């Protein structure tokens, strides 16, 4: 099934770095997941275009991967080609606008903004994902969200057209965007920030990051907040009130430090995490009559 595309990726004129049967546990913050049939490591937008074109031509499924901080991959792995975007990190600063490729880490962009005296990225300085992933899910923390700072976004459609969308066209809402329901792939994002004293920016970043260190289980593998915030409630508080702090199934555990996080205690399987998420959701609904919806995306072979 993959012979043609592997040959293309190995040809001198169109060579793209790739690996076969690459363990996804090395590429997700949960440290869980079987093998990707093929993982490609493009270093330019042109290479991403080629990969998507080849996949479409040969009817090969593909998945776009940032840092894998909000996904849970099946122990049976992922069929097709995983396109890891970490090689796309070019960035420019012009006035109050930072234009950055999708694979750049949020923390890196936040530090560039700090040095440029631009405010607006502080909330994202401790989020461990990429710019592309953050726009995809409208990531947010401490009252800030990507929708507040995105000016526009370049993306490639499922039929290979490169287009640009404004903030209004990206259909942002809580933890979602238009990309959540399309096959379009984010390539580059323009962020509109505001001038500010770098000292004030640094103080805000330090405050947010200190709060994260104090309250979140950053020393254990997880995918961040496991559940979306239910209207009028906090997921972690509901879970704690149901007596589920430390509740575990296999190697998956409701964090002892923050009940809104499910963590991998060292040997968790994908099924452990899935079962734990369902059990927690069921118990919270039984005791609190509140539905908890997972924020983490479950992917791969069933």
Explain this structure to me?
With 302 residues, this protein is α+β, with helices and mostly antiparallel strands. The chain folds into three domains: 3-84, Uridine Diphospho-n-acetylenolpyruvylglucosamine Reductase, domain 2, CATH 3.30.43.10; 91-200, Uridine Diphospho-n-acetylenolpyruvylglucosamine Reductase, domain 3 (2-Layer Sandwich), CATH 3.30.465.10; 217-299, UDP-N-acetylenolpyruvoylglucosamine reductase, C-terminal domain (Uridine Diphospho-n-acetylenolpyruvylglucosamine Reductase, domain 1, Alpha-Beta Complex). Helices cover 27% and strands 26% of the residues. The longest helix is centred in the C-terminal third of the chain and has 19 residues, at 270-288.
Helix content: 25-40%
Query: Structural class of the helix and strand makeup?
Result: alpha+beta
| CATH architecture classification name of the largest domain | 2-Layer Sandwich
Strand fraction:
25-35%
CATH class of the largest domain: Alpha Beta
The radius of gyration computed from the alpha-carbon positions, rounded to a whole number of angstroms, is: 20 Å
Whole-Å distance between the termini? Answer: 20 Å
Taking the sheet with the most strands, its summary is: 5 strands, antiparallel
How many β-strands, per DSSP?
A: 19
Number of domains: 3
Strand order of the largest sheet: 6-7-13-11-12
Mean pLDDT: 96
Order of helices and strands: HEEHEEEEEHEHEEEEEEHEHEEEHE
CATH topology term of the largest domain: Uridine Diphospho-n-acetylenolpyruvylglucosamine Reductase, domain 3
- Structural shape: globular
């Amino acid at each position: 099934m993959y012979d043609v595309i592997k040959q293309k990726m190995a040809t001198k004129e169109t060579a793209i770095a790739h690996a076969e049967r690459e363990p996804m546990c090395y590429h997700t913050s949960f440290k869980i997941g079987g093998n990707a049939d093929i993982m490609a490591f493009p270093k330019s937008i042109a290479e991403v275009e080629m990969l998507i074109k080849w996949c479409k031509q040969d009817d090969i499924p593909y998945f776009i991967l940032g840092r894998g901080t909000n996904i849970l991959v099946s122990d049976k792995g992922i069929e097709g080609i995983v396109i890891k975007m970490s090689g796309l990190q070019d960035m420019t600063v012009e006035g109050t606008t930072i234009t950055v490729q999708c694979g750049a880490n949020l923390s890196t962009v936040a530090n560039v903004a700090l040095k440029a005296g631009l405010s607006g990225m502080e909330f994202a300085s401790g989020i461990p994902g990429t710019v592309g992933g953050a726009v995809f899910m409208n990531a947010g923390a401490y009252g800030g969200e990507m929708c507040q700072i995105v000016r526009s976004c370049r993306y490639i459609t499922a039929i290979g057209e490169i287009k640009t969308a404004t903030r209004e066209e990206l259909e942002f809402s809580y933890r979602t965007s238009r990309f959540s329901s399309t096959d379009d792939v984010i390539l580059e994002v323009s962020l509109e920030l505001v001038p500010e004293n770098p000292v004030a920016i640094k103080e805000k970043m330090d405050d947010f990051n200190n709060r994260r260190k104090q309250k979140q289980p950053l020393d254990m593998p997880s995918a961040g907040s496991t559940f979306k915030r239910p209207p009028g409630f906090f997921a972690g508080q509901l879970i704690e009130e149901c007596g589920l702090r430390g509740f575990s199934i296999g190697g998956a555990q409701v964090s002892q430090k923050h009940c809104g996080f499910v963590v991998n205690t060292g040997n968790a399987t994908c099924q452990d995490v899935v079962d734990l998420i369902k059990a927690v959701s069921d118990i919270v609904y039984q005791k609190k009559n509140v539905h908890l919806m997972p924020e983490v995306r479950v992917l791969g072979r069933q």
